[in-house]
Amino acid sequence: MKKKILLALWFTLLLFSVGYLFWQNEFKYSLPTPIPKNYHAIAMGSKIDLSQCCAFDNKPVFFHFFNPDCPCSRFNVPHVSDLIKKYGDKVNFKIVVLNKKKTFSIEEIQQKFGAHIPVYFDEGIAQKCGVISTPQAVLLDAGHNLYYRGNYNKTRYCTDADSNYAQMAIDSLLKQNISPSFNALALKAYGCSLPNCTK
Questions:
Q1: For residue 189, which of 33, 36, 156, 185 is within the disulfide window of CB 3.0 to 4.6 Å?
Q2: What percent of the chain has pLDDT over 70?
Q3: pLDDT-derived band of residue 8, with 50, 70 and 90 as boundaries?
Q4: Which helix (H) or strand (E) holds 172?
Q5: How far apart are CA 25 and CA 19, in angstroms?
Q6: Phi first, then psi: what are they for 15, rounded to 5°?
Q7: CB-based contacts of 186: which residues, under 8 Å, 6+ apart?
Q8: What kind and span of H or E run contains 8?
Q9: Which residues contact 147 (CB under 8 A, 6 or more apart)?
Q10: How far apart are the first and last CA of the chain?
Q11: 3-class SS at 60?
């Protein structure tokens, strides 16, 4: 009888551990990011003033909001690297690192993406763009108006080519479409919450 109770306890503990690991590493990142209490919504089409931090020319600007400690951010590094390679001559790519736990150098971040593009460590950029989680993509047109703010893909591994939302936004802007339409999965924030980039 004691053996059966111990075995039942062992299986219960094992089941609980597997469930907890699934929650910590997978399921919680599939839920929308909670909107912070003091969140100030930034509407699509709004002029984004980033003149204090970022140098611009007359190209569209793509901000990648990134946290090296966020699993979702880590999984989409190859996808973002591909976007930089594909569109780097037509769009100014910039990485905004949002992490309060560790200090990363510009060179470390550039090395992760295999690209020598500007890297910022300024939370104010996220606030001005209305970003509440990582990873998130923000695309500004050449006039610095918010064209797209949202997810890269409906899967955290960026494996579904039919839902490459950030790439679709770039293509749409370069074709000079005035207002692209995206579904809720593209525009609702998922991933690691700000300001500490952990859920």
A1: 33
A2: 79
A3: low
A4: helix 165-174
A5: 10
A6: -65, -45
A7: 150, 151, 154, 163, 165
A8: helix 2-25
A9: 44, 45, 60, 139, 140, 141, 169, 173, 180
A10: 42
A11: coil
Amino acid at 90: K
Q: Judge whether residue 66 has pLDDT over 50.
A: yes
Contacts of 194 (CB under 8 A, 6+ apart): 36, 98, 123, 126, 131, 132, 133, 134
Structure tokens at 110: 């550039």
Q: What is the mean pLDDT of residues 153-168?
A: 76
Query: Rounded to an integer, what distance in angstroms lies between the CA atom of residue 186 and that of residue 164?
Result: 9
Tell me the pTM. 0.82
Query: In whole angstroms, what is the distance from residue 67 CA to residue 153 CA?
Result: 17
Which residues make Cβ contacts (< 8 Å) with residue 95, sequence separation at least 6? Answer: 63, 64, 66, 109, 110, 113, 117, 118, 119, 120
